[in-house]
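Q: Fold this one first, please.
A: Sequence and structure below.
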Amino acid sequence: MDAGRVLRAPVEGRTWREFGYLMLGLPLSLLYFSLAITGVTLGAGLLVTFLGVPVLAGVLAMCRGFGKVERARVRGLLGADIAEPAPLRARKPGPVAAMGALLRSGSAWRHALYAVVHLPWAVFAFTLALVFWAYGWAFLLYPVWFWVFPAYTDMPGLQLFQNGDYTFYLDSPAEIALTCLVGLGFTLATPWVVRALTTVDRVLVGGLLGPSRLDHRVTELETDRGVVVDTAAADLRRIERDLHDGAQARLVALAMGLGLAKEKLLEDPDAAAAMVDEAHGEVKLALQELRDLARGIHPAVLTDRGLDAALSSVASRCLVPVKVLVDLPERPAAAIEGIAYFTVSELLQNVSKHAGARGASVEVWRTGAEPAGRLLIRVSDDGRGGAGLDGGSGLAGLAERLRAVDGVFLVDSPEGKGTVVTAELPWRSR
């Protein structure tokens, strides 16, 4: 540990803020504890009547208010940003529904638990921090204030102990110097003791007054649902645009061409035949565009033959040679298979357009068993590298799509050393 950091720690603002947090914690905890215990006891005793329900609901609402104060204290004095718990979700408007939401809320009961269990910890932390702080600074500054004893009392110095007729005072220069050194040790240790104590407080506040893992999961699912809806809407717009600009426009031109050929059929059969031949070519092009569009929605080869054949087909259309290795004991669920296919397809398009690579490889395998199994995908190339999730290459969109289904998307792309993209999807069997 840096010696300068150790010497600076006792006078740093962070140390004083953390010490102030611990000193303020005891009176607040006494208030929380007394109000929470009194309220819960009163409410439980009144449950034989209807009055117990609103009393308990009021106590839980009060404890949630305590949580706001504690999160603000942690944020202001300890610099830790604890997120707000999930808001209460009443099933319908009205005070009765609000009381029911409070009584059903695990977050509200955790706030009440914090008001009870924090008091013994606050007493311990307050006492330990104050003892270290007071003894440290008092002994360190003893050479400055020890003159008070001979000047205003009949003692030559600070009395440590007395045994019968023998009394020990800190009054000689050596004893004063030794006391100062002991105080220095306490003073230098105090910031780290205080930091350890406030670390426990951070854990308590984060665990009991912050959002639960279920709340985090609900928030993630709400976000992922929005991503899925936006992605589906974007895909529908793309399909509509491709139909409008491609096959639809070609079919309109084909209909017009056939109409003109019909008009010329009697008066100029040769010209009509040429127009029909041209229309035949347009039909072939329209069919090819529709096949490509259908392949972009969900290729038939994926449905019929699985990932191995579908990815080999995608690799054959890539502008660089691609080695494909698929090692799966069975086919995953259709939704997971489709996401894996389109992930590899878009990554190989990036390789063709942006990587400047001479070759690439695709590896797909399964690890673990259900329900914790994962489908792993690795696409690598020997191109120029430098790809990233913020580079505008579409990788950020892929990452969002995978996160929406509890997937993982990692990019390793150092400049000049190629790119390795690893994707994980949850495994679900058909």
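Q: Good. Now the second chain.
A: Here it is, same layout.
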Amino acid sequence: MSRLVLENVTRRFGGLVAVDDVSFSVPTQGVTAVIGPNGAGKTTLFSLISGFLPPSSGRILFDGTEITGLAPEKVAARGLVRTFQLVKLFEDLTTLENVKVGRHLHTKAGLFAALARTPAARREEREVEARARDLLAFVGLAAKADAHASGLSYGQQRLLEMARALAADPRLVLLDEPAAGLNGEESEQLSRIIRRIAEAGTTVLLIEHDMTLVMNTADRVVVVDFGRKIAEGTPAEVRANPAVIAAYLGGTETAPTRRTEAGRG
């Protein structure tokens, strides 16, 4: 069974069709990437999947259950978690505390128990911290556990956001341009971590402009342009697809995007 299925999903903003009758599925295992020129509808598509926008029509199914139009917190509680292109961290907290915030989605003791410092709450807090430290080690930030998020490099902040997303034990993680602002070495490190996330059993769906990262990391690629899906397949298949070459890649996998628009997407 597919982890995620989109069936004829459309989103209109007045007379503008940002996502136009898009259908595709995301396999339970591996990494799937969504690519396309600026303004193609990628970010809107992620907002529809994660509940930040309702579709105008169509259906979205997660692990066989329809989640169309559910609020973001309800989508996240079901195991579908999203990161953002613009890093959204608690800068006054340490890296460890940031990850613990993500982990508390799964705590059970409750507010009264936490305030009263009951044995159950203390035990749960130890488990939360242990899991948070494991995740910092997983993304290579173990040595920064006590550093404030504001003091991390931009690349380290991207890794911290990823660790915080993983703290919720998602079945599917949406990565919104995770390589934005990273240098080549940081992008290579990120690629390895994304592959490790998938190999550990979490499905990965990402939007990315870094074609080198996409081609080296993704198992399958979905290409959108002007809100419509124009191609889907393995990285090699997509790279050789004439429609993709014409719309986006310009004949090579590292060619610049075709156009720039006021809106992201």
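Q: Anything worth noting on the second one?
A: The CA atoms of residues 100 and 128 lie 6 Å apart.
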